[in-house]
Design a protein that fits this description.
The chain is mainly α and 80 residues long. 80% of the residues lie in helices and 0% in strands. It has helices spanning 2-22, 25-32, 43-77.
Length: 80
């Protein structure tokens, strides 16, 4: 996890250095003034997503993690 974070930060820093070195001030100003339109989810849709996330977590993700951890513990404990 830490290695992935460091790798992402490295790529972001390289991207910022290249952007600062290669782009004119006019382009930098246009990028800085760009407004992004982000849509809003309806409350009903958010409620449905919350239910799906709960069901996924309880019946897929949690049993899968339990099975993987149990397999690892069993494999390490009883390996020759």
């Amino acid at each position: 996890l830490v290695r992935s974070t460091v790798a992402i930060m490295f790529v972001q820093n390289v991207d910022e250095v290249v952007f600062d070195a290669c782009c004119s001030n006019d382009i930098k100003d246009k990028v800085a003034s760009t407004k992004y339109k982000v849509g809003e989810w309806s409350p009903r849709f958010r409620e449905r997503i919350g239910k799906v996330e709960h069901l996924y977590g309880m019946f897929i993700h949690l049993p899968l993690i339990a099975a993987i951890v149990s397999s690892l513990v069993y494999g390490i404990r009883y390996s020759p």
